[in-house]
């Protein structure tokens, strides 16, 4: 896996769009091999895993998703999770850096596709390795997601960026505080009120606001991508943690620092009310419909 990651990192660090595409496909292929059952397809040989495609696309279409309980016992996933605990092999950081370079390049259809591919990979990485979400507690990375929500970006990029933003904030209150500090609420509500924003993006923005207004819960102390402690010691615990979902996390595990990072629903409602009218109606609808019953911010 180190050989594949090393090759992918070299490719996505390039200024050549063909190499960037190749590197992103290599990462996507690695994630697909971890998340999808092989079915009747033959396993790839070590030499094939170092190839550009990293996975046969025909096999990927026939494969079925693995259940969360299966991931903890999967050697590939355990190795992937172990490697993510160190800065050298953390993929989320490398893909985020690639996104930043892509934003600095000439905007065209080709570049937009690479941005979308990067966002798709990043969302999957943050779901597979929750400790990597801590990178979005840093302003430089949070600002990257907010830049992607600028009106000049195409609707597909805006929608994909909102999905990554939700994943980055999920069960990570300290990231939500960074989002607020970086005027994230102003960015989101301005895009929502912009007449040029498409209806499909407005729907996703509304979904994001529902998510933002949900009650927060502290998370257990876990290792950041540049440490070697925490979940790395026992990846088998991850399946149980996923199945319990964020809503069942107890504040006793998060420590005093985690609790201080939490804002009440009323506090967030007041903050959002600075930029948007009828926030009370959103909260009432959220409480009545409970669109995300098993999720806590």
Automatic annotation (TrEMBL):
> GO:BP terms for this protein?
cell division
Superkingdom in the source lineage: Eukaryota
Alphabetically sorted, this entry's keywords are: Cell cycle, Cell division
Say yes or no: keyword Cell division present: yes
| One Pfam family this sequence matches | CDC14
User: By its UniProt entry, which InterPro entries does this protein fall under?
Assistant: ARM-type_fold, Cell_div_Cdc14
> Where are the residues of the annotated region Disordered?
38-65
Q: Kindly provide the name given to this protein in its UniProt entry.
A: Cell division control 14, SIN component
